[in-house]
């Protein structure tokens, strides 16, 4: 019975992929003006008709910006949803966008930061937030020699997961699940294979793994420690990716060094610095953060025994 059920599940996943893929391909090929007109129509559907996670977004914004009026919250919320739809479709655009076009639309101001670390033969942990366009950051791979390895959460549908991997492969970027990240990095470092490890690190950890609590946007919450733990274990360099949205479809990124030798850092220095840099970005232009995820869901939870509360 379980084999039959699993076969049906896989068949349904394949059916959904085959149904969706032609539409995704067509969307990725749209001229930019039509592409963003389509994004606007998706925004109207998502925001006004479906109301996707509007309650969560509103609660998050009111929680971290208690000083803002309802009208200010509404403006941020609407701008966020427009940006979220743009960003989602820009991920699809990665299927067909040319290297030259991507370099023009995701401009990196100081690639020399990574090149200097390459010259020093240091593997790099690149810490990224759910801010602006973290997807198009793959363009950095066109400007450096190191291979990039992105730590990600595997997509449940294996066919869409394979598609994402194929898109990343265009830029010499590999993907490894968070479950296998330690094994992959350990093997690389033991074999002397240098790389850049990209990690989106502002998730909320599971409560039983919430061993470090600190302020983020003025709220005491557990922090995800994976990037710091990996960096300190292998004495890697750590860099923050700072991305700003300049206008629709155009971003400017810079690399901010956190440390060249994580092994020399005090515990939690890296994660605190990372969260501080991300918070500064959010406060400067809050609409470009991913407010739909429940980042502050554990704020009233009891920390597990032995947790450090800063």
Oligomer: single chain
Helix content: 40-55%
User: In total, how many beta strands?
Assistant: 10
Q: What is the number of domains? A: 1
Number of helices: 10
Strand ordering within the main sheet = 1-9-8-2-5-3-4
In a nutshell, what does this entry contain?
With 310 residues, the protein is α/β, with parallel strands linked by helices. 47% of the residues lie in helices and 18% in strands.
Walk me through what this model shows.
The structure is a single chain. The chain has 310 residues and is α/β, with parallel strands linked by helices. It has one domain. It is 47% helix and 18% strand. The protein has helices at residues 2-29, 32-50, 54-64, 70-93, 99-105, 112-119, 158-169, 181-191, 226-234, 269-284, and strands at residues 106-108, 124-128, 148-152, 173-177, 196-200, 212-216, 219-222, 237-247, 250-259, 308-309. The strands form 2 sheets. The chain has a 7-stranded mixed beta sheet with strand order 1-9-8-2-5-3-4. Strands 7-6-10 form a 3-stranded mixed beta sheet, with helices on one face. The model has no long low-confidence stretch (mean pLDDT 92).
């Amino acid at each position: 019975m379980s084999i039959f059920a699993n076969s049906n599940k896989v068949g349904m996943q394949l059916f959904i992929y085959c149904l969706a893929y032609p539409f995704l391909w067509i969307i990725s090929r749209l001229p930019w003006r039509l592409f963003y007109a389509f994004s606007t129509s998706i925004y109207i559907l998502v925001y006004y008709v479906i109301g996707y996670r509007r309650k969560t977004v509103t609660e998050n914004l009111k929680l971290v910006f208690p000083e803002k009026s309802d009208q200010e919250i509404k403006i941020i919320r609407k701008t966020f949803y427009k940006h979220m739809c743009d960003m989602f479709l820009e991920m699809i655009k990665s299927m067909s966008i040319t290297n030259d076009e991507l370099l023009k639309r995701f401009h990196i101001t100081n690639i020399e930061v990574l090149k200097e670390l390459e010259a020093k033969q240091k593997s790099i942990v690149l810490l990224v937030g759910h801010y602006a366009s973290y997807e198009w950051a793959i363009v950095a791979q066109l400007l450096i020699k190191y291979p990039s390895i992105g730590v990600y959460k595997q997509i449940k549908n294996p066919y869409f997961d394979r598609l994402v991997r194929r898109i990343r492969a265009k830029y010499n970027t590999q993907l490894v699940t968070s479950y296998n990240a330690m094994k992959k990095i350990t093997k690389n470092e033991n074999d002397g294979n240098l790389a850049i490890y990209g990690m989106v690190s502002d998730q909320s950890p599971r409560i039983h793994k919430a061993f470090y609590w600190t302020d983020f946007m003025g709220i005491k919450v557990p922090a995800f420690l994976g990037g710091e733990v990996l960096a300190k274990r292998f004495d890697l360099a750590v860099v923050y990716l700072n991305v700003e949205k300049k206008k629709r479809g155009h971003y400017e990124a810079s690399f901010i060094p956190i440390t060249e030798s994580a092994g020399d850092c005090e515990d939690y220095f890296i994660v605190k610095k990372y969260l501080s840099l991300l918070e500064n970005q959010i406060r400067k232009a809050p609409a470009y953060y991913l407010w739909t995820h429940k980042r502050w869901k554990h704020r009233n939870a009891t920390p597990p025994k032995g947790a450090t509360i800063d």
